[in-house]
Amino acid sequence: MSVSIPVLETQRLILRGPEPGDYPDFKATFSSYRSRFMGGPLNAYEAWMLYAAEIGHWDIRGFGMWMIHDRESDRTLGMAGGWFPAKWPERELAWIIWPEVAGRGIALEATHACRKHFYETLGWDGAVSYVDPKNLDSIRLAERLGAKRDLEAASVDGHDLCYRHPSPAALRSGQISDGIEMEIANYIDPLFTPKGMPVD
Amino acid sequence: MTKALPVLETERLRLEPPSLAILDAEKRFWASDRATFAGGRMTGPQVWRYLALQRGHWDLLGYGMFSVVEKQSGAPVGLIGLWGPEPWPEPELAYNIYEGSSGKGYAEEAARAVMGWNFGALGRERLISVIHPDNLPSQRLAARLGGAPTGEQFTPNPDADPVDIWRYCAPEGRS
Predict the structure, then answer these.
(1) Coiled coil located at which positions (chain A) (predicted)?
(2) Which of B55, B67, B83 to mutate to test the interface with A (most CBs of A within 10 A)?
């Protein structure tokens, strides 16, 4: 293969290229109901083909989806990165988190790092995310990332919503990034932790 | 993902890793009747993904399909190689020949190069092809290459027909 996939590191996560040994984790989520907004659930044949396509995407486009690993245990938690196959109107920032580890701010931390890499290292001038209108968790994440619904933009299939991410300049100006980083910090070390059992 | 992928050569053909250079040829193949026994027709965007997954197949398994081109003209001839995604029972010799390239003995020439690579450089001792029971041209080629049906079948995709498993003999001197 002609590209080497960069490794991105955040406080809790390490993002590496998808490897053969990660496939069972990918298959588990993509053959489950969790993948219903990403074209799933897939059978074994379809899941393997999609995984191979995720790797080939890196080779063809020079960017793609990283496998998200927990920094401490190295276990996989999901995928995040760029996705721009044929038929996609624009380069997409995309994510999927394995269902058993959802709710810990992993997608936010991973996508924030991916977007920064695309803007600062690859020189992207923007990005979008295509979200199923019923995928409320992903709509909420797009909003937390500072993305706004773009009613003018083309969607992939006329059914999904296009969320447009803030430009590199808007992201550099501080407020959006600061908010994201504060939220991530709060996942890592909550500002408020209940002491003892609630009594009411 | 930095390892170099192999290139094979025969008298008239070069076998190289597939790339977007053959996207148009692949789109024509998958929009035609020739796709019937290869898994069914695909749209343009599906063919793009198919080429992407061809690259990923190499990366995941260390072998894959080659884009076969005519040495003299550079014209694409087809996609031939070792194909073994989940849930294949073992890697198979697979061949998709483009319209206009059949009847020249190219498929056999390229397939023999892949067989030599399989039993030689790769050090594998087994080789099958999975062939649709109605795909007579493919069965004829498999027979010319020394293959024979095993009587076993497998279903590559829950949505597809079961296909016959053919097996080739390893060359003399190997078990």
Answers:
(1) none
(2) B55
